[in-house]
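Following the same procedure, the fold was encoded as tokens, giving this record:
***
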Amino acid sequence: MDTCRDRFGVFNSTMFNVYACAMCYSYLIGFKQPRYVVMREEPYQGAMIDASHLHQRNGSAGLSPEDLLYPDLRDQASTDQVCASLENRDCGRWLTCCRAARTCCQTQLSTPPATPAHRNHSLVCPRTWDGFSCVPDTPAGNIAMLQCPSYIDGGSSSGLCLLRYNNCNVLKHKNKTGTKSY
């Protein structure tokens, strides 16, 4: 089965696309008192639920399938429902992030796996969707530096934002307002 890697794990490609799109919502919109809450635990992983329903049901124990929304770019009704709760700019940012995640998964599937250098037996950090960008296979101990995509506030193709990775973990997110270490 085709699988794609996200910073939280490996998913089949269909689930990856839904989960990554839900997480794009969480990362990009989550701080703005969002209408939806992203579920991260099984069996609802990748689903979104109207925050008011979650409180009415006293958490996930009382959820029914009708309460859940699985954001899938192939399902226009689900994307329309999410976008209806957002300003146009935020809807566009969210959809662009979802498309980037989907492209990352396609790239992961179409690119042959990296192998460690035989000379020094170094490890390779596997290609990963980090929630914002597609990080390529990178030898452990090396730093992968990526420009932040335009859908991140403060990010642009002009280099105002930079993601740095070392030992398979994000180190810094730097933009014009400062540097954030992780």
Summary: Residues 88-110 form the longest helix (23 residues). Residues 171-182 have pLDDT under 50 and may be disordered. The first strand starts at residue 3 and ends at 6. Helices lie at 13-29, 51-56, 76-84, 88-110.
